Amino acid sequence: MMELKSFKKLFLMTKVINSQFELSDILQVFVDAIASEITQADLVGFFLKQPDGTFTGYKGNKMSIDITELLIDPQKDAFVRDILERRASEYIGDTNIDERIDDDKKLLMKIQSILGIPVIVNDSIFGVVFVHDFGKPMNLTREQIEVTEAFVNMVSVAIHNIQMFENTKNLVEKQQLLLDATKALSKSLSVREVLKTCFHYMKRATGSDEVGIHLYNEKDRTIEPYHISSVSVTEEEWKNRHREEIKLSIDKDKLFYEVVTEKKAVAISDVYADPRPDHRACEMFNIMSLLIIPLVAKDRVFGDVVIPTMSVSREYEQGEIEFCQSIADVTATALANAIHTENLDYSVNVRSMELQQANFKLEGLVKELEYLNELKSDFIATLSHELRTPITAVKGTVDILRKEVLGKLNDSQLDLLETAGKSIERLLNQVNELLDFAKMENGKFELSYSEFDFEELIREATHIVDSLINKKKLELAVEIHAGGDKTMRADRERILQILLNLLSNSIKFTPQWGKITIKAYMEDNGMTIEVGDSGIGIPIEKQKNIFTKFYQVNNQINGTGLGLAISKQLIEMHGGKISFESSEGEGSVFKITVKK
After folding, report:
1. Environment class of residue 145 by beta-carbon count within 10 Å: exposed (0-12), middle (13-18) or buried (19+)?
2. In angstroms, rounded to a whole number, what is the distance separating the alpha carbons of residues 63 and 57?
3. What whole-number distance in Å separates Cα of residue 422 and Cα of residue 80?
């Protein structure tokens, strides 16, 4: 069993590795940690599995030997072979007794004892880790081996996460590449433009500079070279060889027959091990591997895209083939349109008329939406007017009763009237917000400019909210830096309305014993006011909508959702701006600036 100290060490190393995002960085931290923190070994090396089954040195701790120059062949090393077959760690305490390790490596590295652990990712061997000293035995304890194995497992998870991230990233990149190709091809009007665009995106999709396109002559059942992008042969030479030496008839060529008739891509990693390709033609162009993708549109084959690999063989992954097929599909559509442009005039005209009709309908819908929006604003304005009169009357009645003009009231009655008065006041404020909103929507809202004392405005605002501050036992800190000139020219009532709205929000969202801060500055260019709080803050996902009309960050708190939207419009009507910073759980700071 591992001791608490080992668990702590493993935990700390886990944090370090999980903070890395590059495979190279993770593996470097990994080998350094095993060498210095777990085994105190001279050498910890990570060997990466290669396609041919061998393992090459990839990362090692600081040492005199360059690990990247080392190669391990399981066929020559029984120790490594046992690790791979058992898919488990192996430890040789004395290489003089256990002679499975490769003699050349044993002599080169002066290995007397060695620990080997497979790194398994997604149920496949990803690499192997080797730990040993130079010229002396390690004498590793069971605990050290277990910690190292646990560390390897953790690194396997990290590698798996990186692979998942890379796969997701590659998928997104492929989707974006396909979208870009689709957009570019939709703008390509000539055959040449279509093929040029196809070449560009096929190169990016496959990483190959060798791309050729044949067109299919349906009448003669022949494949004719059309265009090529190559670093190994010129287009003229390519076409001449096809005219003089290579006649591509699908009835005589098994490979092209399959591609055309079955309308599906064919990938061949070794052309000489497959009977379908024309081996003479492959030899002529030094082709070792082939990917052929048909250009199919409207169930008709227009040609094919050939992506060869010269000199060396290549395995084509299914995802890569499918992605190239997607690009070929959009290319085929664009190519078909370009080839048959002269036959599509009627269809283009019909489509143009359909689009025109759709535009007419869209214009009608836009006008209807504008009309409905105007009706909405008128309705809100009318309703607000209609509501304000009876609300004002009720407020007046409640105020008379509270002043005990009509007779003495008991404490319970006064409490009820106090509650009613606050509710009426809140309702009246909401009605006024709706009325302001309607005026702004209809363009009927006007500012009333006047000169006023900047510092006096701040004092009035704090006096108005003083009872709310005291009720929640909040601390209010006010800093005013007015300088010499305290005069401001703006719509005083609207600036006060904005400031009260910001203060009201801060009070609402700040728990008891919290703090509200007002910082105000009067400078030569204008006025700046900051209202900060130690409240609950605004979740980051909701911050983008904070100034949206009728949007509420917290639906459990009463309000119209118009306060900040109206404040933003009022500030902008003054030629100023409003901004904020907020961290969830830490509070918010809203800042308004208005020029003189």
Report:
1. middle
2. 13
3. 81
In 3D, which of 238, 207, 211 has the Cα closest to residue 307?
Answer: 211
**3 state DSSP class of 131:** strand
Rounded CA gap, 225 and 571, in Å?
Answer: 67
**Per-residue model confidence as pLDDT tens for the chain (596 residues):** 445 445 555 555 666 556 656 778 778 888 888 887 788 888 888 999 998 889 998 888 876 678 888 898 998 899 999 999 999 999 988 888 888 888 888 888 888 889 999 999 988 999 999 998 888 888 888 888 888 888 888 888 888 888 788 777 777 878 888 888 888 888 887 878 887 888 888 888 887 878 888 888 888 888 888 888 777 788 888 888 887 777 788 888 888 899 889 999 999 989 999 999 888 888 888 889 999 999 988 888 888 989 888 877 788 888 888 888 888 888 888 888 877 765 665 555 666 777 777 777 777 776 766 665 665 555 555 555 555 567 666 666 767 777 777 778 787 877 777 777 666 666 666 666 666 666 676 666 788 899 988 889 999 889 888 888 998 999 999 998 876 677 888 988 888 888 988 998 899 899 999 999 999 988 777 889 999 999 999 998 888 988 887 777 665 555 667 788 888 988 988 899 999 999 998 999 999 999 87
Where is 288: in which H helix or E strand?
strand 287-297
Strands 515-523 and 487-490: unpaired
Contact 63, 57 (CB under 8 A): no
CA angle 478, 481, 482 (to 5 degrees): 120
**How far is the C-alpha of 439 from the C-alpha of 61, rounded, in Å?**
72
Cα 457 from chain centre: 45
d(CA 304, CA 419): 80
Cβ atoms of residues 286 and 210 within 8 Å: no
**DSSP string over 431-482:** HHHHHHHHHHHTT------EEEEHHHHHHHHHHHTHHHHHHTT-EEEEEEE-
* CB atoms near residue 589 (< 10 Å): 17
Report the DSSP pairing between strands 222-229 and 248-249.
Answer: antiparallel
Q: Which amino acid is at 561?
A: G
Q: How far apart are CA 66 and CA 188, in angstroms?
A: 52
Q: How far apart are CA 111 and CA 97, in angstroms?
A: 12
The answer to whether the beta carbons of residues 118 and 125 sit under 8 Å apart is: yes
Tokens of 539: 């979740």
- Give the Cα separation of 381 and 430 in Å (integer): 12
Q: What does residue 564 show for φ and ψ, rounded to 5 degrees?
A: -70, -35
N-term to C-term CA, the chain: 74
The structure tokens 């085929």 sit at 332
Q: Which two tokens stand for residue 144?
A: 């050290």
Residue-wise DSSP of 32-83:
HHIIIIII--SEEEEEEE-TTS-EEEEEE-S-SS-GGG-EE-TTT-HHHHHH
Do 579 and 567 form a contact (C-beta atoms < 8 A)? no
Closest CA to 149 of 123, 132, 129, 134: 129
What is the residue whose two structure tokens read 């092209």?
Answer: 256
Reading phi first (left if > 0) and then psi (alpha if -120 to 50, else beta), residue 122 is in left
